[in-house]
Structure formats: C-alpha cells, structure tokens
Amino acid sequence: MSEVTATDLYEVTMALSYLREGMQAPATFSLFVRDLPPGRGFLAAAGLEPALGYLSRFRVGASDVKGLAEALRRPVEDLEPLQGLSFDGQVRAVPEGRLVLAGEPLLEVTAPLPQAQLVETYLLSLLCHQTAVAPKAARCVLAAAGRPLVDFSLRRTHGAEAGMQAARLCGLVGFAGTSNVAAARRYGIPAAGTMAHSYVEPFASEEQAFRAFARTHPGPVTFLVDTFDTDRGVATAARVLKDLGLGPGCGIRLDSGDLGAPARRARTALDEAGLRDVEIIASGGLDEYGVDRLVRKGAPIDVSAVGTRVGTAADAPYLDAAYKLVEYDGRPVMKLSSAKETAPSPKQVFRGPGLRDVIGLAKEESPEGTEPLLRTVMRGGLRTEPPDTLAAPRARFEADIAALPEEARSIGHPVPPLPTVSTRLAALTAVVRHRIEAQMLEGDGQ
C-alpha cells in the first residue's frame, strides 16, 4: 500500500481542485484534540517521529496517480497535476513525551495548500492512535508507583504495526521491557517473556514442564504457575528452582483470577522455601486500574505485565482530534460551526509551572516564567534535527509528569488542567469572527 494513496478520497479531490484553481499559497493547518477522553487528566504527545518520516518520504508518483484515478473513476490524465507533488513545507510540533491538554496544537503544518491538505489523513492516523495509547501507558506507570512494568500487548493490538507503536510508547513512558521481539530490536527495549499455559499442558506434569524449560533456558527463568492449581504450581516451581540452584533473577507468573490473594500466598511459600529473591510477575487483563488496586492493597507483586487494555487504550480508544485550516496566504481563517468553532492563526503553547498553559499566537513573546512548547522540527521538507531515540522523549515525559498537578495524576477521577487563551489570540478571534459574520450578512443581502 502506498502511503500517498492511504488517504481519504476528499483530500485528493480538494487538492486537485486547489491545483486547477491556482491556489498554492502557504496554508497553515493545526492538529489538536478538542476534549480529553473521560478518565484522562492529560495526554502525552506521541507519533511525531513516524509523522516526520512520512512527510520526508511523501511524493506523488506515477503509480499513485494511476491508483487515485482508478478510485475516482477518472482518466489518468485528469489526475496528472498531482504527479511529482512532494512535501516541502514547515512543521512546528510539541516534542514527543511532553504532556498536552485539550485544545493545544500537537503540530502545525505550513505548506502550499495542496500539499498541506493531502497529508491530513495520514498525520491524523499516526498521531491520534499514538497520542491515545501513550497516556494509557503513562497512567500505568503512575499506578505502579515505581514498580517495573512490561508490555504484553502485541497479540491483542489492532494489527502488528499498532503493536510496534504500543511497545515504543510503553518504552517512551518508562516500561522496563516488552514481549514484542521486533520492537525490542528496533527501539532498544529489553525483551521480556515467560511461557504460555499451552507449554505446560503437553507434559505429563507441571514439574516435567518446568524442568524441561530450565534445561533449554539455563539462565534466569520464569515459570507460569496457574495452569491447573496455583498453590500447587507455586510449590512445584519452588521445588524445581531449589533443586536446580536457581534463585536471583528468576520468577513465577500469575495470570488468572484475583491476583492479590494468590500473590500473598505465593510470596509466603517462596520465602519459606528460602527463595526470597524470586520475583512474582502478575498479568491477565491488567491496566492502570488493576495495577492501582494491587498496589493500594499491598499485593507483593514485583512486576506487572499489561497488554490488551493498554495496547488498545480500551477505555478511551480514540481522540476527538481535528486538523483545521487556521491561515491561508497570510489571512487568518476559522470555523464557526456550533460546538466545533476553531481559533484562527498559527499558535504557540506557553507552559508555566504546574502545566499552567496559555494558548497564544505563534508570533507572541513567551510570557515571563513560561516556555514555548511547539518548536520547528521540519523546514523546507527537511528535518531540522536528527531523529530522537527513546531516551530524549522519556526524559521530557518524566519532567512533565513530575510537574503535573496531583488531581490530574489521579487514577480514579482525574481533573485535567485547563489551558487559557492569550489576550492577543482572543482579540484576533473576535476580529476574524466579526469579519466572517459581516461577509455572511453581505452575501445574504445580495
């Protein structure tokens, strides 16, 4: 599948019309989330790295033109004005890992109008999915209160590429490892995993299964102990670990049921067997809510593995995001539709202590005590900096999450900070609204 043709049809029809009408002046589009999903006190900016990669590669080739013509049921000649079009614009964006709030632009694209229009769908797809998953993973980090987390989401995500994105985002917010081998290799995240219940079942007994596994993997091993009876499985695992002289670095995994009570019994059994260094790993439908309950109840769980609900952002799997034109050919524009009104002109977000943010105009000076969030990451279609490794966005995330107000960090009932609007942006919005309303009245009078 071509990245160029992975778009909504109306992007193509609009871009083609712009070209035929000679409308190729610079246009600025702003990509933002209107409202935070329920249960979220913040978002974490994510997806910028793959978005910049996409824009760097963007070019309409002959095969793309043919595919678009087939989709439109038009002669290829009608679509030829698009051929050779590439992205040579500017991108200003919030760096990955920074926390963002409702109404704040994640990125702004400034490019000739047909270019800026054609890239809309793909950019929304990249940023929306990842900016939905990232805060879910981040909330797990908050719930774990310093205990390690491992990403187990690949098998339940909406496709392998979504699984790669989820593993990267988990690493970005501080997960200790991932079961996704490809992601571990690509992003330098430690690979982590144990065994499945299906491994245990073909053997004559759990003990045979555990001993066979240890023969193949003589280093630190983790035994899945709840295939049949959890307490017996723990006892068997303890016996095998002691017989083989294994201890530090090894673990047992609980994957079923309440998890808290079995973990307490398992910890007691392991300690009584002299295996105090053997860790207890918990999995099975966990997300920030489950991890939070276990931590608050004092369950002796050393590592939590989260998968389905985090990789799919199950309780808030989409964002009410938009990519809206805010300026064309130097003229500020806005949308006045009920409940979907936008603000005109390129913008900047000025961050104060405690995520007290002000959304202002891009040309405004930063108010005292604030820093601008959006920075230029692409100019003339070229990146302004080398690609980030995970270390840089992780450091940004850790700094912002530490500054986040306590009520926004809450797992049960978060209250997000609300950004304010600068005086200059509010004034310009009023002027542009008045201009549009006057034009509408003038049109009605004709």
SS strand fraction: 15-25%
- Tally the structural domains: 2
Oligomer: single chain
From the 3D structure, determine the CATH topology of the largest domain. Answer: nicotinate phosphoribosyltransferase
What structural category characterises the helix and strand content? alpha/beta
Helical amount: 40-55%
Coarse morphology:
elongated
At CATH level 2, the architecture of the largest domain is Alpha-Beta Barrel
Strand order of the largest sheet: 13-12-1-5-3-17-18
Sheet with the most strands, sense and barrel status: 7 strands, antiparallel
End-to-end distance, in Å?
Answer: 49 Å
Mean pLDDT: 95
- The overall strand count is 19
CATH class value of the largest domain = Alpha Beta
Describe the protein.
Helices cover 41% and strands 17% of the residues. The protein is α/β, with parallel strands linked by helices. It has two domains: 9-133 and 316-444, nicotinate phosphoribosyltransferase; 144-311, Aldolase class I (TIM Barrel). Strands 13-12-1-5-3-17-18 form a seven-stranded antiparallel beta sheet. A six-stranded parallel beta sheet has the order 7-6-11-10-9-8. A four-stranded mixed beta sheet has the order 16-14-15-19. It is elongated and about 85 Å long. The chain starts with 8 loop residues before the first helix and ends with a helix. The model has no long low-confidence stretch (mean pLDDT 95).
Spell out the key features of this protein.
TIM Barrel, elongated, 2 domains, 6-stranded parallel β-sheet, 446 residues, alpha/beta, nicotinate phosphoribosyltransferase, 17 helices
